[in-house]
Specification:
The complex is a heterodimer.
Chain A lengths: L17 H29 L11 H22 L1 H30 L18 H7 L2 H32 L5 H13 L2 H12 L6 H8 L10 H29 L3 H9 L4 H28 L4 H6 L11 H12 L2 H26 L8
Chain B lengths: L10 H38 L4 H6 L13 H4 L13 H37 L9 H10 L5 H15 L5 H25 L3 H9 L4 H30 L2 H6 L7 H11 L4 H31 L5
Helix pairs in contact in B: 1-12, 4-7, 4-9, 7-9, 8-9, 9-12, 11-12
The chains are: A mainly alpha, B mainly alpha.
Chain lengths: 367, 306
């Protein structure tokens, strides 16, 4: 791609009158002023300075939406053809900024308050108290440690997914049937999975898996000891997400140049040799992409844990997300919970950035 | 070798043949094993929804052989041949949740595909400069949202929605879900648009269309399969989302996953009704998977292959 200039060139000779330009600018500033006025009014009402106001902040939201539309329209009014180009990206950008950046700033503020939804006082800034509490909170560090285990489990998922992709890529009949069947677990919601597998199939008395184990002479206990419980969570999560990596790897395998593999066969490579020396190196970019995306998804792991073990036994299966979820649900501790989430976000950003730096030379393109 | 082998029953040939058969058997055995691992939980859930308590306790597996299927589980959510004509509050409740899930998932996916496609097209065709941000920075900005864990946004949104009166409303969920799937849509669509030659649009421009005209009339029809893929992938993610729905909805806007999860908590394990509910929650997506598998795979493969 060319580095400067558009890929799609357009020749435009816009003559935009001053009046038109002024209208556009007036639209944007006028609606922005409306947002600011409404917000100020509402704030004055809520702090009790004036007696009339709206019940909620809804009107401010409507004004904000109006401003967003005015901004988009003004692009075309003020800039003509050039504005039409901006219009492709602007809506999505506005959407993401207003739904991510504002809440993040707000979160940053909440995280340094002692806000508990149960307390009547509302948020009171409490400086570094939350930080200190976090430093001494064994359960949070434990949850972070668990995340390390969960992320490491991706390597096993990768091996299985690669194996399955190779199987599906082999000369087999009914490939479509197997592909659909292998894809099915990904379609199921983690909540349904936690009931289907975690609560019913692994049920100690009547579950089919317990029955098989008892037949074999063992005593089934899936969520009693920390290690086994953690392994069970990993297994359920793997069950749902292996298809995801498998499909990516399968797509990679099918895009491999056939001649190279055939050439290796002609040269007398055995199956294992041709895999190790040809297929695997060629698949490296796809593998790395799949693993990185899978790790990013893994860092959000929560639903299954919340529904099957709610962190137990003794926090052994807690992920950071499920821990914060309970911190909010059981203790309404918004301030502290948000600080934990922000710290987690910072850790994730550092980790993912390092990871991308580390693997970018094996990737086809930066994510 | 001097003699030509006409009959392939020489020792060496036979060895090759056994080896070939062995590898065939191994491949199919592995495939079938994994197919059972994938299918058994689904089979178990659907059959359990037709079981009675004694069947569950005895561990009967195969319908009609081990046990007679009964509608008891489905009656608990008001869907069975006997109850279908009658008015049933549990069915109302279930259908309300189902409808919420459907509305939220469909609208969020549609919104994400519209916003995402526009942005992806713009980024693949024009060079932008917003302040210090160039195209690659903007792309990275969008895609980096994928890293954002939902838990960071959840609590601020809870407070924000409370003051905006959006708590427990479908609109609130739709906005959040759109945000959640937008990076994935942009990822897929960018790939799609990069595969479409610019000459097509150039020809359209020469013929007198504007850039939006060229986009809507020429590019969109070509990119439609990709958009369907992105839409379906978003649909799956939104339909299954639990975390935000659990935090931000209470009575009106609760979705199916929240309903399933709340059942496990409150009344112990009521096997047949839980099984029926889970089956009902997963069936739509199983049907989607069977009929639209092509698109799902296309969507997921988009990032993997150039």
């Amino acid at each position: 791609m060319t580095s400067d200039g558009d890929l799609l060139h357009t020749v435009t000779a816009d003559t935009i009158s001053d009046a038109r330009r002024r209208t556009g600018k007036a639209m944007v500033w006028g609606s922005a002023l409306l947002v600011a006025l409404l917000a100020l009014w509402q704030m004055a009402y809520e702090t009790g300075r004036i007696s009339t106001g709206f019940e909620t902040w809804r009107p401010v939201l409507y004004a904000y939406v109006l401003w967003a539309f005015a901004l988009c329209a003004a692009q075309v009014i003020v800039n003509g053809e050039k504005g039409k180009r901006t219009l492709f990206v602007l809506p999505a950008a506005l959407f993401v900024i207003s739904l991510v950046v504002f809440p993040l700033l707000f979160a940053l503020y909440i995280s340094f308050t002692d806000w508990n939804l149960a307390s009547p006082n509302g948020p009171q800034p409490n400086g570094w108290d939350n930080m200190r509490e976090m430093w001494n909170d064994g359960f949070y560090w434990n949850a972070l440690k668990n995340m390390v285990y969960y992320v490491l489990a991706v390597s096993v998922e990768y091996v299985i997914a690669f194996g399955l992709a190779l199987l599906l890529n082999a000369q087999i009949r009914t490939r479509k049937f197997f592909r659909v069947v292998f894809l099915l677990p990904l379609m199921l919601s983690p909540v349904a999975v936690s009931w289907m597998i975690g609560k019913s199939m692994l049920e100690v008395r009547f579950g089919p898996v317990s029955r098989v184990i008892r037949e074999l002479g063992g005593e089934p206990s899936f969520f009693g000891s920390p290690e086994i419980a953690r392994f069970m969570i990993m297994a359920m999560d793997a069950w749902t997400f292996i298809p995801f990596m498998m499909i990516m790897l399968l797509a990679g395998l099918q895009a491999l140049p056939r001649e190279v593999i055939e050439a290796s066969k002609v040269d007398g490579a055995t199956g294992w040799q041709s895999f190790k020396e040809v297929i695997f190196p060629l698949m490296l970019p796809v593998s790395v992409t799949a693993i990185v995306i899978r790790i990013i998804f893994k860092l959000k792991l929560a639903d299954i844990i919340i529904n099957v073990t709610s962190g137990g036994p003794g926090g052994a299966t807690d992920s950071v997300t499920s821990f914060i979820f309970r911190e909010y649900r059981d203790r309404s501790n918004v301030g502290y919970g948000t600080l934990l989430a922000i710290v987690y976000l910072v850790l994730i950003v550092i980790f993912v950035t390092l990871l991308l730096k580390l693997v970018s030379r094996w990737m086809e393109r930066p994510a | 070798m001097t003699e030509t082998a006409i009959f392939k029953d020489h020792d060496a040939n036979r060895r090759v043949k056994t080896k070939w058969w062995a590898s065939r058997v191994a491949i199919y055995a592995a495939l079938i094993t994994w197919a059972i691992i994938c299918l058994f939980p689904i089979f178990w859930t659907i059959t359990t929804s037709f079981k009675l308590a004694p069947d569950v306790m005895k561990g009967n597996l195969i319908p009609w052989v081990d046990f007679t299927p009964r509608w008891k589980g489905w009656e608990s959510i008001g869907i069975s041949p006997r109850l279908i004509g009658e008015i049933s509050t549990v069915r109302e409740e279930f259908l309300k949740r189902f409808w919420n899930s459907a509305v939220v998932a469909l609208s969020a996916s549609a919104l994400a595909v519209v916003l995402g496609s526009l942005a992806a097209y713009g980024l693949s065709r024009f060079n932008y400069k917003f302040g210090f941000m160039r195209n690659s920075d903007i792309s990275f900005f969008f895609l980096s949202q994928m890293i954002l864990p939902p838990v960071v946004l959840a609590l601020p949104f809870l407070v924000l929605y409370k003051s905006l009166d959006l708590l427990d409303s479908r609109i609130g969920l739709i906005l959040l879900y759109t945000l959640m799937v937008l990076p994935i849509v942009i990822w897929i669509m960018r790939d799609q648009f990069q595969g479409i030659p610019v000459e097509l649009e150039e020809a359209a421009l020469v013929d007198g269309l504007g850039i939006w005209g060229a986009f809507l009339q020429i590019v969109l029809p070509i990119a439609l399969p990709g958009m369907v893929a992105a839409f379906i992938l978003s649909l799956v993610l939104c339909w299954n989302e639990y975390f935000f729905a659990a935090l931000l909805t209470a009575t009106n806007a609760t979705t199916l996953p929240v309903m399933v999860a709340s059942q496990t908590g409150s009344q112990g394990i009521n096997w047949w009704s839980m099984a029926a509910l889970s089956s009902a929650a997963i069936l739509p997506l199983i049907i989607v998977a069977i009929f639209l598998e092509k698109y799902i795979i296309k969507g997921m493969a988009a990032g993997a292959v150039k």
